[in-house]
Amino acid sequence: MDNQDNTLKYLISVEKLAQEILSDKQEIILLDKRRNENREALRNLTKSSESKCWLTVGSVVIKHDIATAKSLLEADQKQLNIDINQLRSELKVKVNNLRDLEMQPPVPGLMLVPLTHMENEGLTNAGLFN
């Protein structure tokens, strides 16, 4: 009976973590879709010769000048980038935790991070990286 309870607890923890991973992936997809829509809107505002534009905020439509609309969209873009990057980094940890629960080795290369600008510049100056 005790073994059955432990197995059930194990399966529940694995399923819960897997569900969190799937919901995070879905949220990343939705945020990325919103980021692309913002990018398209910014591009259209840049091309526009109008002085005012209509913005949708929730279910309300508001008329704003182009500069204000651009600044609002750019601020939203920055926040979306932060949220997406945070979710992606948390997702990597959750995937490794799930693999630990499943008694599998971590995904090779999953936790790699790109070189910073300073590291890249140092390698270029040293002639090691072109």
TrEMBL record:
The question of whether Coiled coil is a record keyword is answered with: yes
- Give any GO molecular function from the UniProt entry: unfolded protein binding
Q: Which SUPFAM superfamilies match?
A: Prefoldin
State its location(s). Cytoplasm
Which positions carry the signal peptide feature in this UniProt record?
Answer: none
Per the entry, what this protein does is: May play a role in chaperone-mediated protein folding.
UniProt subunit comment:
Component of the PAQosome complex which is responsible for the biogenesis of several protein complexes and which consists of R2TP complex members RUVBL1, RUVBL2, RPAP3 and PIH1D1, URI complex members PFDN2, PFDN6, PDRG1, UXT and URI1 as well as ASDURF, POLR2E and DNAAF10/WDR92.
The family line of this record is:
Belongs to the prefoldin subunit beta family.
Designated name of the protein: p53 and DNA damage-regulated protein 1
Q: Which organism is it from?
A: Papilio xuthus (Asian swallowtail butterfly)
Organism phylogeny: Eukaryota, Metazoa, Ecdysozoa, Arthropoda, Hexapoda
Q: Which gene encodes it?
A: LOC106117135
